Amino acid sequence: MPQPVRCAVIGAGHIGRFHAEKYARHPSARLVAVIDPDPVRADQVARPHGAAPWPDAARLAGQVDAVSICAPTPFHFAIARDCIAAGIHVLVEKPIAVTLEEADAMIAQADARGVVLQVGHLERFSMAGLGYAAVIDDPVFVDARRLTPFRGRGADVSVVLDLMIHDIDLVTAIVRAPVVAASAFGRRVVSDSEDVAAAQLRFANGAAATLLASRVSPQAERSLRVLQGSGEVAIDLQGRRLSATRASVRGDAPTTIEAAQPDADPLGAQIDSFLACIATAGRPVVGGPDGRAALATALAVIQSIRSDGAAVPIEKSHV
């Protein structure tokens, strides 16, 4: 019987707490440590699972096989660099890094070291559980909305990097083509960065998407609507429901397929996938290049917002 993967969670905040729970309960993993500079917070997350609270990552080498990096985004690159150098597999929360240069360095280092680099775009696993790939065959236009009341978490960065990047990754996976240009508008409401943003994306295959993100909405919504030649697919990511309507070419009534997974566990599925990739040397569902592509588009959206809505080619984007 294979030995369990020795895991650690770096960052004992809101997201790190859930990662720790998943590793502690996983039959193929053993939670070794929870790392956070706040000793009280590290202890609160680690102790219930029999793990050690560590103040920093200095002791990881030789004691841990895999980590979840749930620290604030500005620390992603330095932590990932040190872990990868030690031969440790990395699941890093989104966004992969602050800059494209950091993302490129992480990807190259992981490839050279032969370790798994997975990016935590969790909604891919929500979508996969609903079987979207079987009903979306020729997307022409995608409308994505991600609205939430203000909670303070993530407000140190633009809502584009906090929330919209989820849908940037999703629509890119749905369209199955790279984004070539973005134009966007946004406003600050309660923080020092954009709290509301609306973007238009153009893809290399001619498809288009509109994305709306807000972290100051009175009501929460996470939804996608996909228009294609054969009909329409509506996805409620919050309620984990999908409805696909296929138009009839003979004038008959359209047919509708519905799916629901109200009890799905996307984070559990993400951890399952990460550990499976480690065991089989497989390719992650959302690997480093996917995280880099989402970051490139997000940075282009931010650049467009700060350039009065001017269209920004993705390959030339920078912030």
TrEMBL record:
GO molecular function: nucleotide binding
Pfam families named among the record's database cross-references: GFO_IDH_MocA (PF01408), GFO_IDH_MocA_C3 (PF22725)
Domain Gfo/Idh/MocA-like oxidoreductase N-terminal: 5-121
SUPFAM superfamilies: Glyceraldehyde-3-phosphate dehydrogenase-like, C-terminal domain, NAD(P)-binding Rossmann-fold domains
Positions of the GFO/IDH/MocA-like oxidoreductase domain: 157-226
Name listed for the protein in its UniProt record: Putative dehydrogenase
Organism taxonomic ancestry: Bacteria, Pseudomonadati, Pseudomonadota, Alphaproteobacteria, Rhodospirillales
